[in-house]
Amino acid sequence: MRRWPIAVGVAALGLAAGIVTLGIARDDPAYWFAASSTVASAALLGAGLALVAGGIAAALRRPRNRAGPLLVAAGFAWFALEWNNPGIGSALAFTLGLAFYASCPPFALHAVFAYPGGRVGRAGTLALAGAYAAFAGLLGILPALFFDPRTAGCAACPDNLLLVADRGSLADDLTRAGLLLGFVAPLALAVLLVARVARSSTGTRPVLAAGALYAVLVPVWVGASGDNGYLANGSVERLAWLGQAGALIGLVLAGAWARWRARHTRAAVARLVVDLAASPPPGTLRDRLALIVGDPHLVLAYPLSDGGRLVDADGRPVALPAALERTTLVGDGRPVAVLGHAPRALDDEQLARDITEAARLALENERLQAEVRARLRELRASRARIVAAGDAERKRLERDLHDGAQQRLVGLSLALRLAVSRLDEKAAAELGEAERELRRASAELRELAHGIFPAVLADEGLAAAIEALAEDGRVPISAHRLPEARLDAAIETAAYSFVAEAARIATGRLTVSAELSGERLVLVVDADGLDGFDLEALEDRVGELDGRIHAERDGDAGLKLRAELPCGS
Amino acid sequence: VRIVIADDETLLREGLARLLADAGFDVVGKAGTAEELLRRVELARPDAAIVDIRMPPGQSEEGLVAAQAIRAAHPGVGVLVLSHYVESRYAMRLLEEHPERSGYLLKERVSDVAVLLDALRRIDEGECVLDPTIVSRLVGRPREASALDELTAREREVLALMAEGHSNDGICRLLFLSPKTVETHVRHILLKLGIGETADYHRRVLAVLAYLRG
Q1: CA atoms of B106 and B84, how far apart (whole Å)
Q2: A-B contacts at Cβ under 8 angstroms
Q3: Cross-chain residue pair A460–B18, CB shorter than 8 Å
Q4: Beta-carbon neighbour count of residue A111 at 10 Å?
Q5: Tens-place pLDDT, residues A1-25
Q6: Rounded to whole angstroms, how far apart are CA atoms A197 and A254?
Q7: What global pTM score does this model have?
Q8: Chain B partners of A460 at a C-beta cutoff of 8 Å?
């Protein structure tokens, strides 16, 4: 609360300084920079007041950041440029003018470097120190110590309160050195700032860009005066000065815009908190975060608890494109979610923290759901692999029985038959019986192999296999509209197993029909009666393929079974 | 009768060759693969080829495909396919296209000498042959109320023999009936089942099979 009176005082002081400065300049238009036109007057007042106001606002918002006081100082220094004017009348103001007329650039550029989130760095520190030395020291206080305006020929000038000794040539030398250093140092700062603009986030980029523009215009200003030996108000200098006024106003406006943007984002985060309390449907979280971050292509992914593989809200694996920057939202020391976004869209660490805080529960909730879905997916895939492996194994077994055991039996009975023809009648009769026994065994083996896996299914497909099922079924089976086209082996096997299981337990007529519509195979089995119907066993067979079974009573004992199998293509 | 035998199992191939030689057949070629079979048939131009349905490389139905190829390329060469598969569908693939001089028996018939030799003889005479087991499955399969229920036991017997590919003469011999009686049975059966009468023997077999499979 104590800060407010100070703020009001500084603001009043700044306004007064501005008005006084404008008055001085207007009184003596031949001198200095501002008074040549209305535009110049507006630039003088606008830039100075903008710096003071922006500085006050920054200081109030972030008391510990140096940017605020530095901007205020820059504002006063901006006005002080006009105060070493003979017409100022006051010795104190005149002396302040002598000491600080050139000090705006180091203060303003220092403020830009100190802007929240930015670090000055070693090169920056060196260049800033150079700028202070040049503009406040060599061009300001140091020559003021040795400059007596009267001996320099200004009879109307007020007293220089800082005067230590009248050594006009030393003051000139110091000023010359100041101009040289004042050309180099801001140029170095300009280079540093341009490099920083390229790496900056959306919010801070305009501020840095305005600062860089200002930093470029200062050496132009200083350089144009190089030949004079002092900071003059020639035409180039005036243009550079006007440009600086624009850059400084832009700097303050950019700061205000960044501030407004941050506040807007924060308001969106706050709304998010409120909205999330009403538990939104899954998937909407991403859209909300995309709005807040300002990246419509934002990818929201969740790390699985084991190993941190990334999945989306549905549990499907997500690969973040390499072009996206990753920001991991951390809650309770654990990664809760990973955001993939356009580079620098989310380099405000505070915003990432705010989002995490606001959406923590919702994110955690969605992450857990995603985790469950991912596990379910894995489970289903592994079940599909198990069933497929079982089918493959049965297929192999069927093949082995046919090509191995049965082939042997047939060969053996043939050998017996050949032997029989060379034996006497009694032995032939006995062996003949054995041979017939072998033939029966062979037939039984064939039935067994067929039961393990119907080769016709692999050879000719679903329709043929169901037709064969009808031939050896215990109950009448009629089939309609079965797809003659070959389907994926897993689909065919699942569909066949479904029908075969129904046929196995059927107590009456069975009608099978099927419809293949693009991505789904729908099988309908109408059973007059089923004995020991186990929906779960059937579901096991189609569930691995993400299929569904629906059973519905049909008359007294009848049952209508409907299986839907996704065919993929 | 000149025969070519194709089976990838040596024991079976040689045993079958001996059995047929003993029975008075002239075995003029033996093959272990479908490709070799086609070559042997091309060279020896036998009266019939005995073909195992499962042969290298795929061990699924190469023999059936080869048999169809032989029937298409050499109308004078009969084929007898030996198969593990009891489903009528495989047999129908062969018989539907080339019913004359084609036969389909289950593998275990190789030692059932009477059936095997009868089949070869009938194929040589131009008939078509379907395994009795397959036919009895078709006749006996559970079905809803149908015209089959109206047949007498004797008529069902005759129907089964028709489906196996036997001619009227053959049926007479097997059932010890007079040609006239058999003709009457056949006429009644076709009438009851609603199958149009046809003089063509092969068309009759296919019509009966189509009815039984339908």
Answers
A1: 6
A2: 98
A3: no
A4: 28
A5: 577 888 899 899 899 888 888 888 7
A6: 13
A7: 0.59
A8: 89
